[in-house]
TrEMBL record:
Keywords: Isomerase. It comes from Pseudonocardia autotrophica. This is 1,2-epoxyphenylacetyl-CoA isomerase. Its EC number is 5.3.3.18. The keyword DNA repair does not apply.
Length: 259
């Protein structure tokens, strides 16, 4: 079964399989290839992808890798290192995606699952959604960029507490921390996340991609560098087809039709 599905301008990507939501290695490689290809596409293409939706196929989003396989590996260092490298190959184009990324997060997102959620732009959870680092429970340190994304989202002190104590974060805490964009009833998570992805996909794709790029560089940029990048970006938007449509729609007092 393919891990990929086109739903209009939304690319749906399955990252886990089974009732418990175990990270799916074959799906991971398929998603990686699709995300890498996406980076080379024209954001102005009306038939292109305008948003990415990540999901599982069970009652949990993703509970991480196969711990029994870790335990049974003859060369644990080599096995886990290779698996982490494969996982990171997916995370890089996910974080660098030219279009917005959304995670539909029912149930648990633990270990690698939590890393994926943190790497997405927006996440929709349910009342029973829980996130947990989970790595310390098996004597591991995190992968999937968790030590990079979490402090940027919640601050260094909170990230330290969450990671060192292997804290379980419920929906209320995740909303307060800004990790979840919205919380709905458990049985509505998939539909709400899909609706959000479709809404983003109908927006100004190139402009949203530039917003992602500006946000991604802000931690490494000086204020002057960021202001210069913003000037270039907003001018490029204004001269492009999306800016033209947005300005025309404003003067004509109608909703813009970007796609």
């Amino acid at each position: 079964m393919s891990a990929l599905e086109r739903d209009g301008r939304v690319l749906r990507c399955r990252v886990s399989s089974g009732r418990h939501g175990t990270l799916d290695g074959a799906a991971m490689q398929e998603v990686t290839a699709a995300l890498e290809k996406l980076a080379d596409t024209d954001p102005a293409d009306p038939d292109g992808v305008g948003a990415v939706l990540l999901h599982g196929d069970g009652e949990n989003f993703c509970t991480g890798g196969d711990v029994r396989a870790f335990a049974g590996a003859e060369d644990r260092y080599g096995y886990v290192h290779d698996l982490a490298d494969t996982f990171h190959a997916m995370l890089r184009p996910l974080v660098g995606s030219p279009v917005p990324t959304v995670a539909a997060v029912p149930g648990w997102a633990a270990g690698a699952g939590m890393s994926i959620v943190l790497a997405c732009d927006l996440a929709v959870g349910g009342r029973s959604t829980r996130l947990r680092p989970a790595y310390p429970a098996i004597g591991f340190s995190p992968d999937g960029g968790m030590t990079w994304t979490l402090p940027r989202l919640v601050g260094a002190a909170r990230a330290r507490r969450i990671l060192l104590t292997d804290e379980v974060l419920d929906a209320d805490a995740l909303t307060e921390l800004g990790v979840l964009a919205s919380v709905v009833d458990d049985d509505a998570v998939a539909d709400e996340a899909a609706a959000l992805a479709h809404r983003l996909a109908q927006g100004p794709t190139a402009a949203l991609g530039r917003i992602r790029g500006l946000l991604g560089r802000t931690w490494e940029s000086t204020l002057d560098d960021q202001l210069a990048a913003e000037s270039d970006s907003i001018a490029t938007c204004a001269a492009g087809p999306e800016g033209t449509e947005g300005l025309t729609a404003f003067t004509e007092k109608r909703r813009p039709r970007f796609h």
